[in-house]
Amino acid sequence: MIWSALVLGFLGSLHCLGMCGPIAFMLPLDHTSTTKKTGQLALYHLGRILAYALLGLVFGLLGKSLELFGLQQKLSIGVGIVMVVLAFFPSKTNIFQKAFKPWQRWIVKLRSALGTELKKKTADTFLTIGFLNGLLPCGLVYMAILAAIALRSQWGATLYMVLFGLGTVPLMSAVVFSKGWFQRNFKMGFNRFIPIFIGVMGALFIIRGLGLGIPYLSPKVQQNAQVTAQIECHQP
Q1: What is the per-residue burial (b if ≥16 Cβ within 10 Å, else e) of 189-212?
Q2: What pLDDT, in 10s, does the model give residues 162-201?
Q3: pTM to 2 decimal places
């Protein structure tokens, strides 16, 4: 399941250009040197991946705490249902937008800081821009976070988000170097596969949560981990 992050990142990277594309094109890259340009772009991607890793760690801890309460399987089923619904009814993503309304002021400040960094040309600027970019609200990142929460550890969730970030690197880089030609010619083609893949992922998470006894795919829940408490009353 964890390797699905690479595919999700790869298929969704062109879709994410609706938000990240303008930022990528506005990067103060050194177009006179291919070596410098590649290094600067690598720092930008590293910043995004670090932001995704942080999100994975935070939400992974949430998933881990739910596992301690025995809710991991129900969570996996719930995440799968949400993914299937959003795959076939993409308009429902406005639920996430409403959830972020209380954070609107913070998001405005984040975008303002991002705009300030885009005016600079120092080496650390690209890392900062990437990190701030990775924290901006994005529907596909929400999908990755949902999948990360359903994993069994905070480190697994962190790795999932890192792989998701790595999956976005090839196409995002190709778009920058091709000056938009790649985006115009391939975006619609890739977008057709995104809902299908998210729907398949959702179905796999549901199957995983059902504990059907299928090795690796849907392992049966161990019922032997029960805590028993004995209370002894002693007469004075």
Answers
A1: ebeeebbebbbebbebbbbbbbee
A2: 999 999 898 888 777 776 555 555 555 556 677 787 888 8
A3: 0.76
